[in-house]
Structures are given as structure tokens and as C-alpha cells.
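Inverse folding, one chain.
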């Protein structure tokens, strides 16, 4: 299943570098429950390094989800594609 990284998770005075907001293809407001607990993989386009995360909760009412990654993703990851396993 494909998804796209929308942005880092942001607070009023700080951002959370290990938490990313992800838009998953074909998932709406009521469908996100089937995604919680799944793994997310982002491949670095230059070095080929894999960043692995896990979907933990919903973000908003448009079907977007928040994924926690083990390592901080670079800013180049915003707008790129991820694979939801």
C-alpha cells in the first residue's frame, strides 16, 4: 500500500522529528483503524538507507495517520512516497 509523507508532527512551540503525518492512498476517516500497528518504510533516494516506523494513531478527520520512526527522517522526506506494509 502506498502513502505520502505530508509533514512532521508539529506543536505550537516545537516539532517532533521522529513523528510524521502520512496520507495513505484510499483511506478515509472511517478506514484508518485497519492501519494502526502496521509498519511504514521510507527508502533514502541517495544512500538507500531504510527508515522503519509504525503507525500509532489518527491525525485529524481526513484519514491521515501519525507514524513514529526509530530514527529521525531528513527534511527531504516530506512529499515523498512511503510503503505501508
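Residues assigned per position:
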Amino acid at each position: 500500500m502506498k502513502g505520502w509523507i505530508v509533514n512532521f508532527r508539529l506543536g505550537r512551540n516545537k516539532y517532533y522529528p521522529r513523528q510524521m503525518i502520512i496520507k495513505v492512498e484510499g483511506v478515509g476517516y472511517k478506514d484508518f483503524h485497519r492501519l494502526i500497528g502496521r509498519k511504514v518504510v521510507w527508502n533514502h533516494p541517495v544512500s538507500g538507507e531504510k527508515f522503519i516506523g509504525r503507525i500509532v494513531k489518527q491525525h485529524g478527520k481526513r484519514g491521515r495517520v501519525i507514524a513514529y520512526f526509530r530514527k529521525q527522517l531528513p527534511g527531504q522526506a516530506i512529499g515523498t512516497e512511503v510503503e505501508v506494509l
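The chain has one domain: 2-84. The longest strand covers residues 15-24.
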